[in-house]
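Let us practice reading a record.
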Amino acid sequence: MAQQLLMPKATAVWLVDNTALSFDQIAQFCKLHPLEVKAIADGESAQGIKGLDPIATGQLSRDEIARAEANPNHKLKLSEPKVRVPESKRKGPRYTPVSKRQDRPNAILWLVRNHPELKDAQISRLVGTTKSTIEQIRERTHWNSANLAPMDPVTLGLCSQIDLDLEVERASKGRPLPTAAELGATLESARETEKLPFGDNEREEEKEIDADAVFAKLKSLKSNRDEDEDDNQHF
C-alpha cells in the first residue's frame, strides 16, 4: 500500500509559513491545487488550521526540504517510515497448513459436540472447511467417522481462542434463556419451604407439658433430698 501524507492541508500551511518552497512544489507534495496553496499563503484559505510539521512526524527530512528550496524543479518525496504497519488481510476462507488439514475433521467433531449453537458458516470460518464436510461429520456419514476423535481446534492450532470465543458469543446472541428443566434441580421457593411440617411435632410436645406436673416433680426431688440429709444426721 502506497504511503500517504498525514493531514495534507495542515502540512501545506506549515510549509508555506516555514519554507521557501514554491506553490507548485507544496501543491505536488500535499496533493493540492497550486491556486489553493496560493490562497493559503494569502490567508484566504485554511484559516484556523494549525500547521503540521512534517519533519516532526517523520514524513519529510530537512535535507529533502533544502534540496527542494535550492532546485525549484525538485519534487519532494516522503521519507521512509520507521515502522511498517502490516496491511489488513482480505476476508476469505481461513488457510490451513497442509500438515494440519488431517486434524480438521477431529476439530469439527469437537465443535459440533461442544458448541452445537455454532452455525456451519462459523465452523467453516474457524477451521477452514466446507459445509458438506461439516454435515457429513454431524450426520456420521463421513468416510472416516469410525476413527474420528473430538479435539479442541485451539489446541490443534487451527484457530485462536479469541476467534473461538467471538464466534460462540455471536451464536449465543438471540438464543432464549435456558429453562428450569435445562438448568436442573433448583432450590425450593420460600413459600414452599414455609409449608413444610418442620418443628410442628416439637411444638405439640411442648404444649402437652403441664406446669403442675413439673412443680410436683420438683417437690418430690426436694423431699427425697431432705430425707437423705436426715439419715446422715442419725449416723
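A brief commentary: The mean pLDDT is 77.
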